[in-house]
Amino acid sequence: MKSIHGLIIAVGLGIAGALFNWAYLSSKASQEEMLAFVGIKGGKTVNRGESLRDEDLVQVRIPRRLAGNLPDFAVSYADKGTVIGRKVNRHITGERLLLRDDLTTPLEELELEDGESIMWIPVDTRAFVPSLVKPGDRVSFLINRSAMPTPAAPVRPRGETPDAAPSGPVETIGPFVILALGNRLSSAEIMRAGKMQQMQENVLAIRVSDHVAGERQRAETLWSLLQATNFRNVGVKLHNRKE
């Protein structure tokens, strides 16, 4: 009988020890640092060339000790907003992580066809908001002719009030296709997701093509007016993207 009681006590202690061990491991697991990544929801499929939607995405949490170098390849959940609307470059099914390589990456160099050239136009950032403009957009430039130099006016008698400066007509020249804003060859979202610094966005690179009727002549007229106005009083008109 004593041996049976001893066996029961030993089994009870073993079970209690296992329960305490399980509770300890559960507590440690809840305290473990986790990393969150963007994943594709189960049952969702995103085909190549399609844009990611918010409803396609889900948070995937992985312990840091198991993540290894995954942060270098997977998209952090903190950057989820930057991938919504981005197109994927391959077929992606659900229940898998979204990788940086799955996304259309920023262009690394300007691509020109035969008969095309680039003209850089510096514009005061007070005249437009660079972050709302992206390569591929069509813009026209507004030139205020009042900024152009005029012949010297005759000397007025002392005490006579000078006439107000004439406002001058505003000439619209365009449209032109933007190829880049400074070093940005893609949208601002793609640049941020690719962790590329944006610089000199006030300098617009426009396409000048021999294949578009009158475009090269318009570009030459634009440049002449810009030089005449010393590149001042230049506005930017963004055309409807749906046209």
Can you describe this structure?
The chain is of the alpha+beta class and 243 residues long. The protein folds into 2 domains: 32-104, Alpha-Beta Complex (Type Iii Antifreeze Protein Isoform Hplc 12); 116-148 and 165-238, no CATH class. Helix content is 24%, strand content 24%. The protein contains 5 helices and 10 strands. The strands form 3 sheets. The protein has a 5-stranded antiparallel sheet. Strands 3-1-5 form a 3-stranded antiparallel sheet. It has a two-stranded antiparallel sheet with strand order 2-4.
List keywords for this structure.
243 residues; Type Iii Antifreeze Protein Isoform Hplc 12; 3-stranded antiparallel beta sheet; 5 helices; 24% helix
Counting helices, strands and paired strands, the structural category is alpha+beta
* Cross-sheet strand order for the largest sheet: 6-9-8-7-10
Give the overall shape.
elongated
Query: What about the largest sheet?
Result: 5 strands, antiparallel
Secondary structure layout:
Layout: H1 2-31, E1 34-40, E2 45-46, E3 57-63, H2 64-67, H3 80-83, E4 92-93, E5 96-97, E6 116-122, E7 138-144, E8 170-181, H4 188-193, E9 203-209, H5 215-228, E10 234-238
Antiparallel strand pairs: 1-3, 1-5, 2-4, 6-9, 7-8, 7-10, 8-9
Outline of the structure:
24% of the residues lie in helices and 24% in strands.
